[in-house]
């Protein structure tokens, strides 16, 4: 990971800046620093004390802004190691949704096996969850996710047919590797 210790590009936030709560101004300043490349993906941020000092705010205010950036997956905290700019690649995307690891503790992207692809009428519960009416046309996809050759997750997708006109099992199989980056 690239180490970044500089706070040179950060400017103190004016004490009379009243257009938003102070922590939001701090958050905006940190986002600008990330967007400008001062803190690239994977980089370690300076300590909270250094950042707070450079921005002219308390550590508590800085921490509030950082908490929001962590919740939005822009920053990642690692206990005892620091705060990092999140790396958004296929592996990170996959493990954000699938909290599964091999029996030896290593993370491995699951193998996705298509079990079923069929056109159905939406039942009450999924229709309600999607804000639709029961009985509307849908595409139901069942996948089995495997780790080390063993099934660990049964995944059922219910897709409103009106949003996926022309989607066939063949086209789904062709696109699946693109969608999941597997």
From TrEMBL:
Domain HTH gntR-type: 20-88
Keywords, sorted A to Z: DNA-binding, Transcription, Transcription regulation
Keyword Transcription regulation annotated: yes
CDD domains in the record: WHTH_GntR
SMART domains: HTH_GNTR
Pfam families: GntR, UTRA
Name recorded for this polypeptide: GntR family transcriptional regulator
